[in-house]
Amino acid sequence: MLRMLEAVGVTQDEERVYLALLRERWADATDLGKSLGMPEEQVAEALAGLAAKGLVTRAAGDGPVVAARPDLAVEALVARRYAELQEARIAGSRLLEEYRSATRDLAANELVEIIVGDDAVAQRFTQLQHDVRREVLVFVKSTDTPLFGDPRNGAFRLLQGGVARRALYARDALDTPNVLERITAFTDAGGEARTGPVPADLAILDRQVALVPLLSGESGDGDPVPGRERSFLLIRRCGLLDVLVSLFDLLWLRAAPLRTRPGIPGPRGEGGESLSALDTQLLSLLLAGLTDHVIARQLGLSLRTVQRRVRDLMTLAGVDTRVQLGWQAARRGWLTGNSALEERRRA
């Protein structure tokens, strides 16, 4: 049954009794118990709760119970709940001030925290994102990491709230089944995705705190040590964090944009030509260093189709090698700038 009053603290039994009273106008616990098929004691307990919330009144003494007008009664409950939430928010602000006061002069050993286990890392990552105001920067070396997460998690809600999010994917991460669907969901939500060399999984939040694997090889691509859970370092403002931020900025500038959304033509290049949606997607994966076999699998094409379309791209660019194709694609702005290539195919 749809719970209409749950948000204002009304229990399921209380809501059932209140709705019955609205229909009957007035009744006592015995009558309500019979009509609802509930024990009289259970109805009496629900009526007591409704009376405390101002949703019912008793006519006189032990007389029948009357339901209060829904608009007035529910509005009063909403105002009360809002006041409680405001008090909780004020209390949270006070606690935050106490926390900041206690951590203002962090000792060296407090600048770095070790978090053990994927579940604990994922939970801490989610908690940290609630305080983000500007941006989240992520390295994805492997999709087998608590930082890669799920498209339904808080990272996408942050994007909807105006927080910028940039993710740099390693080439090997793009060889994971269904990874393009998840990246597409990420970019559709407003995120930016690129591909290039990635040294390790990494998340940087507002350039104030970072999460990075404790040991080399614990980004999901190394051989796990039997019986040992992966651990991550949580790094707060210090020189090491500044280095990680600079590393992200440098690798991001050198990375190639990822085009994973089919059905959207690529940007128009300097020569006025543009690529079809599929060719833009294919070229993006090709420049990311993926093999023809991997590209075919990710795009759901045959290997021969991929190779034919690559040859057509080379013809359009007027080049003989794939290296030259990459250079021409960058020069012409094919990934950053209908389709001349499609027109030639139709002809």
UniProtKB/TrEMBL annotation:
This is Transcriptional regulator. Residues 272-329 form the HTH luxR-type domain. It comes from the Bacteria. One of its GO terms (biological process) is regulation of DNA-templated transcription. SUPFAM superfamilies: C-terminal effector domain of the bipartite response regulators (SSF46894), Winged helix' DNA-binding domain (SSF46785). One of its GO terms (molecular function) is DNA binding. It holds the Pfam family TrmB.
